[in-house]
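Support request from a user on the community tier.

User writes: "When I paste my structure tokens into the form, the page sometimes reloads and wipes my input. The last time it worked, I copied everything first. Here is what I submitted, just in case something in the input itself triggers the reload:"
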């Protein structure tokens, strides 16, 4: 019988994010792991106690000293390996993770000046009061401290590449076919611009929270301390945590904001996926050369000449996984039967994998981009082989002259179609065609001087919109 890997200590990772790709996903561990969830719960519970006591919400109870506040805030700060093990031990008895958090805190208040106030821990709270705020803090940290900076790294890379290649002409390929020339820099600027818009949108997304009891009515709060303005107490506490207060909920905060954030991140991921497939295609066309040292030590196990675009392929796959998980999260979390069901509990525990696969993809995209060299000669050769793309320029000039009343400019599109469609046209052939059109001298000279290399319109100047967006030219 084969040996069971499940018996090996320390445990062998089940998912690639905790195994093969641990290093790339590691920054999310401090925000979206189970340990991070419990640390966030400790933050919410201790800050709630401080909020109630220092606010004089419960009549007859004293405020805290500086030392007592420091003691409470040290509980989540000191939550490490020993605390994780202790919480797990308590949870085995309570069979309830949030109740275990309450007992964990009370253990640390025993024998201190706060022991007589220990029952204030978790007072008036349902577990979801703690959980919704904890997840909001975790997701805010993961998005703002890890994921958005990683995305900004891609945007910066693309911006630098766009500025460096703003004037490098390149043949466009609409529908995969030779089309009006552009510049490499302008095409990279398009992606930088798209991603920057999504980044700003995600950064501005609201993250909501509530602390209003078992069915969102403050019933326990109001019956225990009827004189308190519990809505204001709730609002000020949620805002103290840096979140947006949700005044109307059931037992759970409705999670609509999470669905909004995940939809925005998934959309950014699909733009990154588009970037990965386009770069892959440019590599296949020879517009980019890959440096083997940057892409990996071995290109192919049997074909030593190859340098495979593995970074972009890895990114593509991981963005598809991330997008599917984010879509599933958003779809599931907006629904809760009546005042509460537990479908959100296990669902929210998968935010880490959803963002982890996205972070892994971004890491690979950046590594892939860093290993590319632009082959301007290959792009120039492609342009030289496709003079027929100037058909658009010639017929546009003819059409303009025609509407201005210049004779002999009839049927410009049809005449250029006869010359160019389905066949290659050389530079000499295009110039010969222009010569026999009977154009006014200025237009004739302008078109004779034109080539696929120079027919790029405002492409180079368009890259400067990136400077407008980030406030500085490159």
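"...and here is what came back when it finally went through:"
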């Amino acid at each position: 019988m084969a040996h069971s890997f499940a018996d090996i200590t320390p445990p062998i990772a089940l998912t690639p994010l905790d195994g093969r790709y641990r290093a790339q996903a590691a920054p999310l561990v401090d925000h979206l792991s189970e340990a991070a969830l419990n640390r966030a719960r400790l933050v919410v519970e201790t800050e709630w106690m401080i909020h109630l006591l220092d606010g004089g919400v419960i009549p007859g109870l004293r405020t805290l000293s500086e030392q007592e506040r420091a003691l409470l805030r040290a509980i989540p700060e000191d939550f490490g390996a020993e605390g994780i093990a202790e919480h797990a031990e308590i949870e085995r008895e309570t069979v309830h993770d949030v109740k275990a958090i309450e007992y964990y805190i009370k253990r640390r208040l025993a024998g201190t000046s706060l022991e007589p106030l220990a029952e204030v821990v978790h007072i008036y709270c349902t577990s979801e009061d703690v959980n919704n705020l904890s997840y909001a803090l975790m997701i805010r940290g993961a998005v703002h401290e890890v994921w958005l900076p990683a995305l900004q790294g891609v945007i910066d890379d693309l911006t630098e590449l766009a500025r460096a290649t703003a004037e490098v002409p390149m043949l466009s390929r609409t529908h995969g076919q030779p089309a009006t020339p552009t510049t490499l820099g302008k095409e990279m600027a398009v992606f930088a611009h798209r991603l920057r818009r999504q980044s700003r949108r995600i950064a501005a997304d609201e993250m909501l929270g509530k602390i209003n009891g078992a069915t969102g009515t403050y019933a326990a709060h109001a019956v225990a301390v009827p004189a308190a303005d519990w809505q204001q107490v709730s609002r000020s506490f949620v805002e103290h945590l840096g979140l947006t207060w949700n005044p109307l909920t059931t037992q759970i905060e409705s999670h609509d904001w999470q669905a909004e954030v995940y939809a925005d991140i998934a959309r950014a991921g699909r733009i990154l996926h588009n970037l990965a497939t386009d770069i892959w295609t440019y590599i296949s066309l020879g517009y980019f050369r890959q440096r083997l040292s940057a892409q990996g030590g071995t290109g192919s196990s049997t074909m030593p000449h190859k340098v495979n675009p593995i970074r972009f392929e890895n990114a593509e796959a991981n963005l598809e996984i991330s997008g599917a998980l984010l879509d599933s999260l958003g779809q599931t979390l907006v629904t809760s039967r009546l005042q509460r069901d537990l479908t959100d509990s296990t669902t929210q525990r998968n935010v880490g994998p959803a963002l982890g696969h996205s972070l892994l993809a971004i890491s690979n995209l950046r590594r892939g981009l860093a290993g590319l060299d632009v082959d301007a000669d290959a792009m120039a050769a492609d342009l030289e082989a496709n003079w027929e793309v100037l058909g658009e320029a010639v017929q546009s000039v003819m059409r303009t002259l025609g509407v201005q009343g210049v004779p002999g400019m009839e049927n410009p599109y049809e005449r250029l179609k006869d010359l160019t469609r389905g066949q290659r046209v050389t530079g000499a052939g295009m110039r010969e065609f222009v010569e026999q059109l009977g154009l006014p001298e200025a237009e004739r000279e302008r078109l004779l001087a034109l080539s696929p290399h120079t027919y790029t319109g405002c492409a180079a100047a368009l890259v400067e919109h990136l400077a407008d967006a980030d406030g500085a030219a490159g």
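Agent notes: The reload is a front-end session timeout and is unrelated to the input. The beta strands are 169-174, 177-183, 208-209, 244-245, 288-290, 372-374. The first strand starts at residue 169 and ends at 174. Escalated to web team.
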